[in-house]
Amino acid sequence: MASTTQLPLWPTSNGRRPDSGRVPASVMPGAAPWCTVLVVEHAEGLYGAQRYLLALAPLLEQRGIRQVLAAPAGSETAAQWRRAGLDARELRAPFTRSVRTASGRLHPVAAASEVGRVIALARRTAALASACQADVLHANSHWSHLEGALAGRLARIPAVLHLHEQSEPDLLGRMRGLAVRGASASIAVSNAVAASLPTLSRRGVTVIHNGIDPEVFFPSAPDPRVRAELAADPSAPVLLTLSRLDPLKRIDKVIRAVAGLPSHLARCQLAIAGTPSLVPEHGERLRSLGRELLGERVRFLGARDDVRELLCASDALVLASSLEGLPLSVLEAQACARPVVAFPSGGVPEVVEHEATGLLARPGDVADLGVQLTRLLTDGYLRRRISSAGRDQVLARHTLARQADLQAALLRELLGAGARSPASGGHP
Known about the structure:
Elements: E1 35-40, H1 48-62, E2 65-71, H2 76-83, E3 87-90, H3 108-131, E4 136-139, H4 145-155, E5 159-163, H5 171-182, E6 185-188, H6 191-195, E7 205-207, H7 224-230, E8 238-242, H8 251-259, E9 269-273, H9 280-293, E10 298-302, H10 307-313, E11 316-319, H11 328-335, E12 340-342, E13 359-360, H12 366-378, H13 380-397, H14 400-415
Parallel strand pairs: 1-2, 1-4, 2-3, 4-5, 5-6, 6-7, 8-9, 8-11, 9-10, 11-12, 12-13
Helix pairs in contact: 1-14, 3-4, 4-5, 8-9, 8-12, 11-13
């Protein structure tokens, strides 16, 4: 096997964590609960929005916020939640919902059925909120927003919606706008997500950017065994994509951009890690395209839980999504001092400033994505500069502790005088 090398990025000589902005002692475990939040999550698997919930939950508990998860039976989020020692209750709700036909058109019967489903789920959610004496309802997943807003009114408690992705100007976008207007407050993960809402729905939205834990994501030397998993030729440059294999993630554009790199980068490898597509045939189309254009230079790794190790074993993260909220993968790569090359979709430009904290290609332009990758892979000074600046930015503005502080402050403001201080204990 060829010797393992890596493009020089971050000056670390060992795997120890650099200074990472630890959570202050004042918010470490010990705060008595001052409110209870029912967190509603409908998704079956673990995606970005669900990973956020699991990462943030312990920090909110440290800040005196008791959380009870409401999720369908078989939810992977609920399984992980319970493993962490937190309270999870079963909410009878389907994993898969749609109001469209296979061609993408609105299905009148499905739409009518969805209205009845929303009302039924709102009633179940409100009953669960009352049973666990919740002070606030937090609707996290996209499909839970409308019934979450309605359930809050039925249970007579504030409802907070968490908006993880941009809204499109279609029926679902208008439904989300109605949900936001009916909720007590909404959190958008980026300014782009807030701006995508209908104009009348933006007033009650607070932007709290995603954060990551720099104690979990930090730079270190690559593990040769992991790098060998990523690439048939570990001595060549290795690009990494962390994404669900869904059409909107446009992984096909990454494959085409890598295939079009100039001859002196013809050995460049591409590793794609992520859960299977909700449209199974799309995943197979991507594999077929990869085999056709890159042959052994592309590897599909499937779902992985060793994200930090994958990032540290790669040379850069590539993101080509056409619709994004604020991708955790970008922040994770920056925290690991790995440079990011992406299209400026959604909230990406809010954390990737071109030539400062990453490189941005013209929207949807495969050729320009290739140009930016070529610049990155051939300019060592540029790589080191944007890698260092990206990590500095995460430590300054995008830590999980900061996100938890802002979310706790929003809850305290929402509950007002009814919220007791953490020191006083008890239930408001």
